[in-house]
Write a structure and sequence with these properties.
- About 35% of the residues lie in helices and about 20% in strands.
- The protein has about 180 residues and is of the alpha+beta class.
- Strand 1 and strand 2 form a beta hairpin.
- The two termini are about 25 Å apart.
Length: about 180
């Protein structure tokens, strides 16, 4: 299955359901992926605004029905990535913005690219680390992704140390099990 040219490049935007739906309605993109945190996929072809699992499953079944390859065959050339689950870190409401700003400034001083559209997404050579203020709870939401488990642990450790230096209490990441 070739995806080259099928989808628009990923565009990072504020990460909340209301922001995604608003942008979706304005642009009516063919396919909007909000995988940065939630895993939501929006499909704008054939009907306006599907973002649910049954519809995504039906679309996948249709692709499989039209393909001569198995699902594993279609996915064979997609690289394996390792990620932490969404980690919710307690943080006083009035300090969330200050902590995120500190993370942005700290990583930029170290020469990392930081995307600060909605929090701080720190770009590493092998992946990324993210921390953002929750819109609904007194917590920071964080997660990381990398090409290998060792690289994931390294990114998560750097992000954790920076958060602790910014005044966040000790917390634990959960790492996937190597297959």
């Amino acid at each position: 299955m070739q995806c080259e040219g099928c989808f628009r490049p990923e565009v990072l935007r504020r990460n909340a359901e209301c922001f995604s739906r608003e942008r979706f309605k304005r642009e009516i993109e063919m396919f909007v992926n909000r995988k940065w945190m939630s895993g939501h996929f929006f499909f704008a072809d054939e009907y306006f605004g599907f973002d649910d699992a049954p519809y995504a499953a039906a679309r996948l079944l249709r692709i499989l029905g039209r393909s001569k390859q198995s699902l594993s065959g279609l996915l064979a050339d997609i690289p394996r990535l390792y990620s932490t689950p969404e980690t919710r870190i307690p943080c006083e409401e009035e300090r969330k913005g200050e902590v995120v700003k500190s993370v942005v400034e700290s990583f930029r001083r170290e020469g990392y690219e930081v995307i600060d559209v909605d929090g701080a997404r720190v770009q590493f050579p092998s992946g990324w680390g993210l921390v953002r203020a929750s819109n609904t709870q007194p917590v920071l939401v964080a997660r990381c992704e990398a090409r290998s488990l060792a690289e994931l642990e390294e990114i998560a450790d750097k992000l954790k140390n920076t958060l602790i230096c910014a005044g966040v209490k000790e917390f634990q990441w959960v790492f996937p099990v190597e297959e």
